[in-house]
Design a protein that fits this description.
- The chain has 164 residues and is an all-alpha fold.
- 65% of the residues lie in helices and 2% in strands.
- Strands 1-2 form a two-stranded parallel sheet.
Length: 164
């Protein structure tokens, strides 16, 4: 009898919750909350751009509030926004934003092939994993530490497209 390999894929929401517990709740600080927001930026944008903006504005003024209040408010709103389904349109927006980090690193041909993959995804002719894999490969070669830390690019996450 053989046992199946454990599934390493986790939902983005579960992974974000684990990141919050490991890096924010374990050593609470405003800096930890801001770093969490920074890592989760594109994941949040894929689910609800308005939520990304709301929480960014909230954190900009959070230094005047008690830390426990900031943490409770932030994670509650973060999960609320993550519960909004990501769409083909919002994923396309995120893919385009991330591709912008490579514009100086890739030659014309590389930029064009990435843009074509994103456009084909937008049109529904290829799955999300195609442009995402291209981005991951290029970010691994040319990306900054900031963009490499984005949870959206984690290959072990299941990024859902719940509606078109």
């Amino acid at each position: 009898m053989t046992t199946a390999a454990p599934n390493k894929t986790r939902t983005a929401r579960d992974a974000a919750r684990q990141d919050w517990q490991d890096r924010v709740e374990s050593a609470p600080s405003l800096h930890a909350v801001i770093q969490f927001h920074s890592r989760q930026k594109y994941l949040l944008m894929a689910h609800r751009y308005a939520g990304y903006r709301e929480l960014g504005h909230y954190l900009a003024a959070a230094h005047t509030r008690p830390l426990d209040e900031v943490m409770q408010h932030y994670i509650r709103r973060f999960i609320y926004h993550l519960n909004c389904p990501a769409t083909r349109k919002t994923h396309t927006n995120v893919l385009t934003h991330i591709a912008g980090y490579l514009k100086r690193e890739l030659d014309s041909s590389g930029r064009q092939s990435l843009a074509q993959a994103i456009e084909q995804y937008r049109l529904g002719t290829i799955p999300l994993k195609v442009p995402l894999t291209l981005l991951r490969e290029q970010i691994a070669r040319h990306g900054s530490d900031y963009i490499r830390a984005q949870s959206y690019l984690n290959p072990n996450l299941e990024l859902s497209l719940e509606c078109s």
